Amino acid sequence: MYKALLKPLFFRLDAERAHHLVFDNLKRAHRVPGTPALLRQLYDFQHPSLEREVFGLRFRNPVGLAAGLDKNAEFTDELGALGFGFVEIGTVTPRPQPGNPQPRLFRLPQDEALVNRMGFNNGGAAAAAARLRQRRNRNLLIGGNIGKNKDTPNEQAAADYVACVEALHEVVDYFVVNVSSPNTPNLRQLQEREPLIQLLQQVQERNKALPTPRPLLLKIAPDLTDTQLDDILLIARETQLSGLVATNTTISREGLTTAAERVTALGAGGLSGRPLRQRATEVIRYLHQHSDGALPIIGVGGIHSAEDAQEKLAAGASLVQLYSGFIYEGPGLIKRINHALV
Questions:
Q1: Were both Cys, which of 3, 46, 245, 304 would link to 298 (CB 3.0–4.6 Å)?
Q2: What is the mean pLDDT of residues 226-246?
Q3: Is the distance from CB of 90 to CB of 71 less than 8 angstroms?
Q4: Would you say 120 is a known binding-site residue?
Q5: For a pLDDT cut of 90, what percent of the chain falls above it?
Q6: Total domain count for the chain?
Q7: CA 189 to chain centre
Q8: Would you say 212 and 264 are in contact if contact means Cβ atoms under 8 Å apart?
Q9: Nearest-5° Cα angle at 52, 83 to 82
């Protein structure tokens, strides 16, 4: 029903407007008695063999929602009813911020891709924490993807990440440090060796001092060289990271079938979707092989089918996440992946 009826209607609208329309209506429908049970019957698929224990957490299935779709932790109960094994909220910053000017989210239907330059638009860490305290589905694991505010200098970035950890640690199950978004000025400079070590050490120090330390992961860009990936692995060991998320969106525009004039006209932003599939898998395989499989990886990038998910897992990912594939394929993709894995 989604691809035949709903998707053509939504794709006639501006991408960001369609996003709000879909999720606002999902929340309204979820309040109707019987709807959550119906959604679970349609889309949820459970089997003991799907369970995974990764960085000390028990996931009921390995298919999660990537950060970016539920930035403010507004729809975790609704997304849980669609069959996700875990949901990553954010990216959350300490203070609310509006993000970049609109329009800032674009579809490339020929490539089954998205371009976004959202800019960490969110209501702030305190608001997200308050919503998570009110959620009903306590069995759904929640990841907290955290970042710095746009006006925070890189030299003071660690304080922003620490503030997010302090605000969210009681209501999330793991943290993901996001220094790889291309849509916050100079953010990716924090992926360089020395700044990244300093940042992660400060965040980890505060995390470990809390009554309930959480697994701490790092989300990396697909545009890193092998040498930079080697540095990431060394840094992960030095700062005692629990895992990596590979990968974020790419700044590359290579291999697209959409007319170059159209792509150029859209301007800057991170590309996600099918064109990212191969590179994301290459990064996962490299990290898995060069860490001897010792570092858990959440694989994300270009998963539009069960075969795509299996490819990521075969390359060394312990879990996978959906973003653009969820938009292009609809919620039925979650069930198809889990069914194929069984």
A1: 245
A2: 97
A3: yes
A4: yes
A5: 98
A6: 1
A7: 20
A8: no
A9: 5
Contact (CB, 8 A) for 83 and 44: yes
Q: Which domain holds residue 60?
A: 43-99+120-244+279-341
User: Can you read off the two tokens belonging to residue 164?
Assistant: 């997010």
**Residue at token pair 């998320």:** 245
Residue 23 falls inside a structural domain: no
- 3-class secondary-structure state, position 305: coil
The verdict on whether residue 239 carries a ligand-binding annotation is no
What is the DSSP annotation of 256-291?
--S-HHHHHHH-S-EEEEGGGHHHHHHHHHHHHHHT
Query: 186 a known binding residue?
Result: no
- Calculate helix-pair angle for 277-290, 306-315, nearest 10 degrees: 20
Among this protein's residues, is 181 annotated catalytic? yes
Residue 196 sits in a domain of what CATH number? 3.20.20.70
CA atoms within 13 A of residue 22's CA, in its CB half-sphere: 22
Q: What is the rounded distance in angstroms from the CA atom of residue 24 to the CA atom of residue 112?
A: 24
CA–centroid distance for 55 within its chain: 17
Whether residue 68 contacts residue 15, with contact meaning beta carbons closer than 8 Å, is answered with no
CA distance 331 to 341: 17
Q: Which of 181, 242, 272, 318 is catalytic?
A: 181
Q: Is 301 annotated as a binding residue?
A: no
Whether 36 is covered by a domain: the verdict is no
The verdict on whether residue 323 carries a ligand-binding annotation is yes
Q: Is residue 290 part of a domain?
A: yes
pTM: 0.97
Is the pLDDT reported for residue 6 higher than 90?
A: no
Given a contact cutoff of 8 angstroms between Cβ atoms, the answer to whether 219 and 270 are in contact is: no
Q: Is residue 22 part of a domain?
A: no
- Please report the pLDDT score of residue 1 as a whole number: 77
> What's the whole-number mean pLDDT along residues 108-115?
98
